[in-house]
Design the sequence.
């Protein structure tokens, strides 16, 4: 396992180009199965999670060519409908491949993706939605076997606006012979990116970004090329790197209107923010002010920014309260932060952060993707050097992090 070595008392100063969105690239890569043709994707982040998804598509028979952030996927040779169990366990979000396999082959076999570090992450909303589309689901063997003669258009009400379930049901119904209506769907920008990609292929989908999505089934889908949207969580992450160090940062290749909930909280904490369509400039005060945060489905404050913002508030003036409403186990980085001298207590779904003047660098262990980045935020502010083990977690979701931080005058090295 490799580790990061970070010199504290840092001050972020400079500009950085934000990469393509992990959480948009993953469903769009899965959707390339649908048309049995050659699809070209640009601005795909070269990270562990997208490479994991591409490995699963290769295992199913796709030909994949990667040239930096350009990925060509030829899905004409897909010859399997069973998702590799080992690869699926490493990449639980690969469950969205099921929807694409069902649309094209009306059959899919997979194993329960299982939980991960942040929660149980069940897939009941996916399964119930598939059943409403007329898909027979056999869960009695070690695999889940899904099959149908044809996908039957339906009206489906999601119990919760699940991002993955919304994406899976969009993919499953895109080739049906009627109109499927999904209600109480996720409204995240990544859903809109998926809709735009599918419509570019010739699908007839509307409503993404609202809480009702309509999918008019079509007979076939053409080959496409598509540019993945910017990563809004990486955007928020680099803003927090600057905010916690009292620095100044300029972000390029961003989409400011999809990070408004994050910008609002950073301004409330005392940061000055200037934004144009694809550029954001943040100027941080010497010391932030405490703020309260509730994580909610989009357009609320994103759960993926929760631990990163929590770490940003450790040395703020006053007491902050952060409530996590989406996942049941997303405060795992707190004990590591407390070891640095942070004053954080967790009760139920809330964390109470009493601002301190100083925290100290020490040896830390990352336990999940965003929690690992929270440790980096704290390390930048801490006195002295911090070593963070298990940085593979962070590399699941952040492209060229070492290069980008070095470019911002940070003393940051990776070992192993
Ligand atoms: C997506 O995960 C993102 N991942 C997550 O980002 C993100 O945190 C999450 O959406 C919420 O925004 C990708 O897009 C690849 P959900 P997903 O289904 O689709 C419960 C990151 O750090 N639920 O919206 O798995 C679930 O347990 C990752 O980039 C059910 O109960 O999230 C959770 O409590 C982490 N039954 C809540 O809904 C289901 O069938 C939200 O899950 C599905 C979900």
Sequence:
């Amino acid at each position: 396992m490799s580790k990061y070595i970070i010199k504290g008392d840092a001050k972020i100063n400079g500009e950085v180009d934000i990469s393509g969105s992990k959480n948009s690239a993953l469903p769009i890569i899965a959707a390339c199965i649908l048309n049995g043709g050659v699809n070209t994707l640009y601005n795909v982040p070269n990270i562990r999670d997208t490479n994991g998804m591409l490995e699963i598509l290769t295992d199913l028979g796709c030909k994949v060519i990667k040239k930096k952030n350009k990925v060509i996927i030829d899905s004409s040779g897909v010859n399997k409908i069973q998702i590799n169990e080992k690869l699926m366990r490493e990449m639980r979000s690969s469950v969205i491949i099921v929807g694409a396999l069902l649309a094209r082959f009306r059959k899919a076999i997979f194993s329960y993706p299982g939980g991960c570090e942040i929660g149980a992450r069940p897939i009941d909303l996916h399964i119930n939605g598939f059943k409403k589309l007329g898909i027979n689901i056999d869960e009695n063997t070690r695999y889940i076997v899904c099959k149908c003669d044809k996908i039957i258009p339906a009206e489906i009400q999601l119990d919760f606006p699940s991002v993955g379930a919304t994406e899976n049901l969009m993919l499953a119904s895109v080739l049906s012979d009627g109109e499927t209506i999904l209600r109480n769907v996720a409204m995240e920008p990544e859903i809109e990116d998926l809709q735009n990609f599918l419509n570019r292929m010739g699908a007839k989908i509307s409503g993404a970004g609202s809480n009702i999505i309509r999918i008019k089934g079509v007979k076939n889908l053409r080959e496409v090329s598509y540019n993945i949207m910017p990563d809004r969580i990486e955007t928020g992450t680099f803003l927090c790197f600057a905010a916690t160090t009292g620095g100044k940062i300029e972000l390029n290749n961003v989409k400011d209107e999809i990070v408004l909930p994050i910008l609002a909280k950073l301004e409330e904490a005392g940061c000055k923010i200037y934004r144009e369509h694809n550029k954001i400039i943040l100027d941080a005060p010497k010391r932030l002010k405490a703020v309260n945060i509730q994580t909610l489905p989009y357009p609320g404050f994103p759960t993926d920014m929760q631990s990163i913002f929590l770490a940003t508030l450790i040395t703020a003036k006053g007491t902050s309260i952060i409530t996590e409403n989406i996942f049941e186990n997303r405060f795992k980085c707190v004990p590591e932060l407390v070891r640095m001298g942070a004053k954080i207590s967790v009760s139920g779904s809330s964390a109470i952060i009493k601002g301190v003047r100083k925290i100290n660098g020490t040896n830390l262990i990352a336990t999940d993707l965003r929690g690992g980045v929270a440790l980096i935020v704290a390390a930048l502010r801490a006195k002295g050097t911090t070593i963070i083990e298990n940085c593979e977690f962070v590399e699941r979701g952040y492209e060229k992090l070492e290069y980008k931080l070095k470019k911002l005058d940070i003393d940051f090295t990776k070992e192993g």
